[in-house]
Design brief:
The complex is a heterodimer.
Chain A lengths: L1 E7 L2 E7 L5 H8 L18 E4 L2 E4 L13 E3 L11 H8 L9 H14 L5 H8 L9 H17 L2
Parallel strand pairs in A: 1-5
Antiparallel strand pairs in A: 1-2, 3-4, 3-5
Helix pairs in contact in A: 2-5
Chain B lengths: L16 E5 L4 H7 L3 H10 L6 E4 L4 E5 L8 H13 L6 E5 L4 H4 L1 E5 L2 E5 L5 H28 L6 E4 L2 E4 L4 E4 L39 H6 L14 E7 L7 E3 L2 H5 L4 E7 L2 E6 L2 H10 L2 E3 L12 H10 L5 E6 L2 H6 L3 E9 L11 E6 L6 E5 L3 E2 L6 H5 L6 E5 L13 H12 L5 E4 L2 H6 L7 E9 L5 E10 L3 H4 L11 E8 L14 H18 L4 H8 L4 H13 L10 E10 L2 E11 L6 E11 L6 H20 L5 E2 L2 E2 L18 E6 L14 H16 L5 E2 L3 H8 L2
Parallel strand pairs in B: 3-4, 10-21, 16-31, 18-20, 23-24, 27-30
Antiparallel strand pairs in B: 1-2, 2-3, 5-6, 6-19, 7-8, 8-9, 10-13, 11-14, 12-13, 15-24, 16-22, 17-18, 17-21, 22-23, 25-26, 26-27, 28-29
Helix pairs in contact in B: 1-2, 3-5, 15-19, 18-19
The chains are: A alpha+beta, B alpha+beta.
Chain lengths: 157, 722
């Protein structure tokens, strides 16, 4: 057991926990930030995607001990103040989610994509989003939502 | 209007809740009841006794009796209700109804029994008339109350967008403002078709409303059962065998019990359960379990070798259970100018819903009550088997339905609910969150059955199909027989039977059930016949569907939107298929190409035309078709669950791969045929179109039939090289 101080969504959280515990379980079951989902536990489905210093990471394979104290963790709860990130608005416009379970991870991955590449091509979208599974088959609408958000973002002065 | 219930009774309660309006069952009981105390008792026992609640702030809460697993019930069923209530949609919010089937059940699953079950694409069909009736009654009560308040005849009043209007007096009042004046009418009428709103005035039915569950799913606040956190909650995991039904002997109980945080071990017939203080402690202990497993029925079973046995069974003289026997199949085959025969096969597939199974259960300290948080497709027992499991009365079990992170049939089982209950009973009254790992979910799944299907067809010299015979060999009754009917095709002699085998593998409905494999076999056979006679497969179907105008209309529409018959890239081909699923008629067309060096099939476009009766939310129908087709492509090109010596060979998305975004088609186009018939289901219509449409396109492109699902690159190469 060890003490960890985590910066999550610009808030400090302190947990005492075993070193090998993954960030996913810390977020969900110890801190109650349940927007980040458990899907496979081996970084193959992307449901658990969060940002660590702005980069999309699979929290299910990230031991808590691997995080540095000053690293900034962002979860779906902290992506935008009122769920009004351009990606989230586009997701609603495209009516993308079905069951919704994978969507937090999809949205975090997509937000990271647009931060890196504000005007991705369809091919670039598919490559960047390929690690995020959706069993309901909402992929076409996910692509559409990202294209909507990219267009809106690029129109901004 | 007819059939009235009598006795005036106020139905106001305190605490902001102003009115419950019901359609049948409890409400007439209350209204007809002369004993005020008894009425109070009923209200207390069923705090929400009906379909809508008006609140003091003018909100209209409509109760959804169905599970929401992405199919849009949270929007489509309330839209039907709001239409007849003439509600202001901006004031509507939606909540899950309590799991009380005598109030919220539908009799469309089983006659004379009210059931809450979100399966078989039947909730729109099952609740359409109930929601219309209840919505119309709600509107009637509001109009009646306004009439009493204004002291005018009800006939002089009308409604519009959440207001009752007196045109003569130029007065209007919102539904919310009517709360202080609400009175129950002496007679609560049952409305009939002529009383309902004229469809030309519809504001919600057939007109897209944004789905009510989407904003919270985009913010990460939508609550699934796995997200539930309760005070004092413990965590549970189970280790189940790789051989279904094997029973465990734990060899290191004291070691496990001594681990950090482990609270208790619980033995199940087929598993060892661990209860621990935290999820990480439970998972750490699960990894250290040392278990010896017994043999089981499936020991020795090899899923890829059993087809030889199934072929023998199909050839056997003894018949199985006859499902269809119309005309005289034997003479049709005997007198045919040309006979066709082919075997089709399909391997097991797994549900792979993204939210692994889980439940949160709290059993009362005395063991006499239970509260459950679960994502369930519900069931014939809306209390999910818990009363029987715990030996307690049904009214002592409260089910709190949560969003489902995918269902696809898997969540219509109760194994994960009863396991949670079994754990919680041991530590009552502390609640337990049971989580299946993905590995548990894969290896102790309940799969779509593996089958072999022997098809025989007879044709005359002109290529008219005169007989069609279908023998399915597999385990699971309707799980393998659904979709074997070909009622829409004009074929004089039809025969179908099921020959049972039993392998001890857990099986369950998987999106579209037997339709996937059966329609694959049937529709491919039609194309093989068309190819033999050098006929266009769309033309052949046009002839077969000549006497089924609704079905034919879907074919013609699909032909039109897919530009069937027009020239395309020589490396591509289109395939077509028609089917009925859950009452919806669909024709699908896909366009594929094949990489002849790797064997990889790519689906470029998919079109479908569908007659689903009255469509409540068109964009939602499109979303269901898109999702169903993507899941179909996934299962057809990639998914294969195999068993060696009884052991499931796959464990996670590493070895059970589902379709990723890189492999989606460029487009999926969905046409909806306008209809005045009652609504039917579309959740499962897309999926079974895929195998046959792809195989038929492949046949056209290469001249070779694909007859074994899935069409993995290795199998495709094998077919190309033979």
């Amino acid at each position: 057991m060890a003490d960890y101080s985590l910066n999550i969504n610009n808030q400090t959280y302190n947990v005492e926990i075993k070193e090998e515990t993954t960030l996913l379980w810390v977020l969900r079951e110890h801190l109650g930030l349940t927007g980040t989902k458990y899907g496979c536990g081996i970084a193959l489905c992307g449901s658990c995607t969060v940002h660590v210093d702005g980069k999309p990471m699979r929290s299910c394979t990230l031991p808590i001990s691997s995080l540095k104290k000053d690293q900034k963790i962002t979860t779906i709860e902290g992506l935008s103040p009122n769920g009004d990130h351009e990606i989230q608005k586009a997701w609603i416009e495209a009516q993308a989610p079905q069951c919704g379970y994978c969507q937090s991870g999809q949205i975090m991955q997509a937000a990271a994509l647009l931060a890196e590449n504000p005007s991705p091509t369809r091919e670039e979208i598919k490559i960047y989003m390929n690690g995020n599974l959706c069993r309901c088959g909402t992929y076409l609408r996910i692509v559409k939502a990202i294209e909507i958000a990219a267009e809106k973002t690029s129109q901004k002065p | 209007m007819n059939k009235a219930v009598s006795r005036r009774e106020f139905l106001k309660t305190s605490g902001g809740v102003a009115l419950f309006i019901g359609v049948s069952g409890i409400l007439p009981q209350m209204i007809s009841c002369k004993n005020k105390k008894e009425v109070q008792g009923i209200i207390q026992k069923h705090p929400l006794t009906a379909w809508v609640q008006l609140t003091d702030d003018g909100r209209i809460i409509i109760f959804n009796p169905a599970a929401e697993m992405g199919q849009g019930s949270m929007t489509s069923l309330p839209a039907i209700f709001a239409e007849e209530m003439d509600a202001d949609w901006s004031m509507v919010s939606v909540e899950f109804s309590p799991q009380e089937s005598d109030i919220y059940g539908s009799d469309k699953w089983s006659p004379n029994q009210k059931v809450m079950l979100s399966a078989g694409s039947r909730i729109t069909y099952g609740y359409y008339s109930i929601m219309r009736q209840a919505g119309a009654q709600a509107r009637y009560i509001l109009m009646h109350s306004a009439a009493e308040h204004w002291k005018v005849p009800l006939a002089e009043l009308s409604t519009a967008n959440g207001e009752v209007i007196d045109n003569q007096a130029g007065k209007r009042i919102s539904y919310g403002d009517l709360i202080p004046y609400l009175v129950m009418p002496d007679n609560l009428p049952e409305f009939s078709e002529s009383d309902f709103k004229d469809p030309k005035n519809y504001r919600f039915i057939g007109i897209d409303q944004p789905r009510v569950d989407i904003p919270e799913k985009v913010m990460g606040t939508a609550q699934f059962a796995i997200d539930i956190q309760l005070p004092q909650m413990l965590y549970g995991v189970l280790e189940r065998g790789k051989v279904h039904g094997a029973s465990p002997t734990l060899n290191n109980e004291s070691e496990i019990l001594s681990l950090d945080g482990v609270v208790k071990l619980v033995r199940f017939d087929y598993a060892i359960g661990i209860i621990a203080e935290t999820i990480d402690q439970a998972l750490a202990a699960k990894k250290l379990l040392n278990i010896s497993w017994s043999e089981a029925l499936s020991s020795g079973f090899n899923s890829q070798e059993c087809y030889k046995k199934y072929e023998k069974i199909a050839s056997d003289k003894a018949t199985g259970k006859v499902i269809i026997d119309e005309g005289d199949i034997k003479s049709a085959i005997k007198s045919a100018d040309q006979n066709f025969t082919a075997d089709f096969k399909n391997d097991y597939v797994y549900h792979a819903q993204m939210e692994p199974l889980n439940s949160v259960v709290q059993v009362g300290a005395d063991g006499k009550s239970a509260e459950v948080w679960v994502g369930s497709q519900q069931g014939f027992d809306s209390k999910l088997g818990i009363p029987k499991y715990l030996g307690i009365p049904a009214e002592n079990v409260k089910i709190n339905l949560q969003y489902l992170g995918g269902g696809f049939g898997r969540r219509s089982m109760t194994d994960f609910v009863l396991e949670g209950t079994g754990l919680a009973r041991e530590v009552a009254p502390r609640p337990v969150k049971l989580i299946w790992t993905r590995e548990d979910d894969v290896s102790y799944g309940a799969y779509r059955p593996l089958t072999l299907q022997r098809l025989r067809a007879a044709a005359d010299a002109q290529g008219n199909i005169t007989g069609f015979s279908h023998c399915v060999v597999g385990d699971g009754g309707n799980l393998v027989a659904s979709g074997i009917r070909i009622d829409y095709y004009d074929i004089p002699n039809i025969y179908a039977e099921w020959r049972e085998v039993s392998e001890g593998i857990r099986l369950k409905h998987w999106r579209s059930v037997g339709h996937g494999p059966n329609k694959f076999a049937i529709e491919c056979m039609i194309d093989e016949i068309a190819a033999y006679f050098k006929k266009d497969p769309a033309d052949l179907r046009r002839k077969l569907l000549a006497k089924s105008p609704r079905a034919l209309a879907t074919l013609e529409k699909a032909i039109a939107i897919s530009d069937w018959g027009s020239a395309i890239d020589a490396n591509r081909a289109k395939g077509i298929a028609f089917l009925e699923r859950s009452g919806t008629l669909s024709t699908g067309v896909c366009e594929i190409s094949v990489d002849r060096t790797t064997g990889k099939i790519t689906v470029h476009h998919f079109w479908s035309a569908n007659d689903a009766g009255i469509v409540i939310q068109p964009d939602n129908v499109k979303a269901q078709m898109e999702g169903g087709i993507i899941m179909g492509i996934s299962s057809v090109l990639k998914e294969q669950l195999t068993i060696v010596n009884g052991k499931v060979q796959q464990s996670n998305f590493s070895d059970y791969q589902i379709l990723r975004i890189e492999d989606i088609p460029d487009s999926i186009e969905t046409a909806i045929i306008e209809s005045k018939e009652p609504p039917r289901g579309v959740g499962e219509s897309g999926t079974p179109l895929v195998a046959c449409a792809i195989a038929n396109a492949f046949l056209k492109l290469t001249g070779k039939p694909l007859r074994h699902l899935p069409f993995t690159p290795e199998r495709v190469l094998n077919v190309l090289n033979t």
